[in-house]
Amino acid sequence: MAMGYDIIIAGGGLAGLTSAIHLSRAGLHVLVIEKHPFPRHKVCGEYISNEVLPYLQWLGADPAVLAPAQISRVLVSSAGGKTIEAPLPLGGFGISRYALDYFLQQQAVNNGCTIITATVTDIFYEDESFLVHTAGSGVFKARVVLGAYGKRAALDQRLSRDYVGEKSPWLAVKAHYAGDFPDGLVALHNFPGGYCGVSKIEDNKLNICYLVNYETFKRYKDPAIHRQEVLCSNVHLKKIFDNSRLLFEQPLTISQVSFAEKSKVENHILMIGDTAGLIHPLCGNGMAMAVHSAKIASEGVLRFFHGNGYTRQQLEADYIREWNRLFKGRMQTGRRLTELFLKDRLSMLLIRGLASVPALLPFIIKQTHGRPINV
After folding, report:
1. Is residue 77 within 8 Å of 347, Cβ to Cβ?
2. Are 194 and 215 in contact, with CB atoms under 8 Å apart?
3. Is 323 exposed, middle or buried (CB count within 10 Å of its CB: 0-12, 13-18, 19+)?
4. Which secondary-structure segment (H or E) carries 320?
5. Residue 77: which H helix or E strand, with range?
6. Radius of gyration of the chain from Cα atoms?
7. Which CA distances in Å does 34 have to 1, 14, 138?
8. pTM of this prediction exceeds 0.90
9. pLDDT digits (tens, 9 = 90+) for 6-28
10. CA atoms of 68 and 97, how far apart (whole Å)
11. pLDDT of residue 218
């Protein structure tokens, strides 16, 4: 017989763990199923906007205890090296997923969540409940399931999600480094075929994470050669790499990173975080969006469990509407910015134009960031 829970969350990343904390804090019986043990490094820009800080503090999960790097300015460069710098309207902080996810996992366990290491192989919905099948850990039952398993997984194919048939040309690479870099700054450096984010995280380490079109990468095959020949054609990236020491045995890579539009509800599963949609890293706000999506899903789930005639159909419709209200415009802005910045000549002209009207860059940043969350 399947073991029963109120909520099952498939995936223990940023969105999944935030939801687990929120829902267990409200007294619900929550199971998180995560295929990898904690803690672990993940390919991520590791910058998070202060817009979600009031919410994390309200949850009792203030990341200040992890001593993150405070970030207040952004610098953008074209592939040719032209730069523009501006203050970040809300500011943010740099924290590794290794530290943050583990911290959130501990908070969830302290709230009474059950977290198991297993792979979800299938999810079935019938008679107002779900059966969640795992490889090796059995079958679990719940009234609500949240999908928080990240950018791409075999489960997407099992659920026949529309976007899985589309091949993505994007490859992402990330590593931590020791080296000199200004405090308080996040830099976004363009290079032919991609762009790279650089900022400090805890312990004065550098996170360097970049996204590259596979067509421009495959002729080099080796990431080290590609980095030297292509990324370092941007003089700012060359200076950073020349004066930094790799702290990983080798950089982490993921392929088939998809920025296609994704359904927010699939077979009655509420999708949150990157599972609902991934913004281009050039916009630097995916982590905050993951946390915020967890909040709106959790609030809807609590309304559903409190009864008063609030149906599953209302829950799903309200979640989709609120997700679109908060994030759809950001996603569209992100796509347009990426199209501009990936064209070398256009990116150079854009940065020159921004330099002549300095107030434009903070305005553009606001289009990909939200307001501080009210709690």
Report:
1. no
2. no
3. buried
4. helix 312-323
5. strand 69-77
6. 21
7. 21, 12, 14
8. yes
9. 999 999 999 999 999 999 999 99
10. 11
11. 85
